[in-house]
Amino acid sequence: MDLEAQNKDLKLLKLPSIMKLTHGIHVMMPAHNDYSNVLVSSANIDAPSLVSAVVSAIELALRGIHGEGARTMILMNVLPLGCAPSFLGFALTNPSLQKDKDSCIASYNAVVDLHNAELKKMVQSLRTELSWTGLVLFDLNAIYMDAVRNPSKYAVTKPLAACCGTGANEYNINLAIPCGKSGTVNGTTVTAGRCSDPSQYISWDGLHPTESFAEHIASAMLKGEFMYPSFSLEEACKP
């Protein structure tokens, strides 16, 4: 394949054949780190320029994957970072960050919303240009927000807190002591450990989902829920 021709080391990875790429179902979950790193490091963000750069990079990757033979691609959008415990914990030391009606950071979710809107436009454009009917969007943002607003529907009791943390605050987040690590707080050594029942949480460590919420995401995907346009994995798996 072209990728192997450009980099001989890739041959060692035993990349799938074009036939396997063509008949495979691919899932892509990009961009979260692109926004996470910028949101916490800069108070003044040129959101339109950032979003344009990120979406353009995703488009370039999709074109490359399509050119290599992939025909069924489920692309996830970005979850509401303003509702993620890590960012809510960060906001405790940054009172200028305003909360919205969902008790999430409004400015962070505004950036994510802009990204998701532009991502949808890009998907629509590629589907038309490349006649790529197997390119669909999974609305990760929507299912996450549904869980924040309707936690009992997902058997969640603490939608804005992390399962794994130090118990430092209402979000169970100490940014200096990530999940699984130990550190000193007021002269005492503490460890960021797991909660007693992870199924009551959306977030495992402040950003990534718990296993139970990941199951909700997978179940929705398998059922064709939160998909744009409508899409059936069952049909896509037929020979």
Reconstruct the topology from this structure.
Blueprint: H1 2-6, H2 18-23, E1 25-28, H3 32-39, H4 47-67, E2 72-76, H5 85-91, H6 106-129, E3 135-138, H7 140-149, E4 158-162, E5 182-185, E6 188-191, E7 201-203, H8 211-223, E8 227-228, H9 233-236
Parallel strand pairs: 1-2, 2-3, 4-7
Antiparallel strand pairs: 3-8, 5-6
General description of the model:
It is a single chain. The chain is of the alpha/beta class and 239 residues long. 41% of the residues lie in helices and 13% in strands. The chain contains nine helices and eight strands. The protein has helices spanning 2-6, 18-23, 32-39, 47-67, 85-91, 106-129, 140-149, 211-223, 233-236, and strands at residues 25-28, 72-76, 135-138, 158-162, 182-185, 188-191, 201-203, 227-228. The strands form three sheets. It has a four-stranded mixed beta sheet with strand order 1-2-3-8. The longest helix has 24 residues, at 106-129. The protein is globular.
Q: Which regions are unreliable across 5 or more consecutive residues at pLDDT < 50?
A: none
The total of beta strands comes to 8
Q: Number of helix segments? A: 9
Radius of gyration: 20 Å
Determine the N-to-C terminus distance: 24 Å
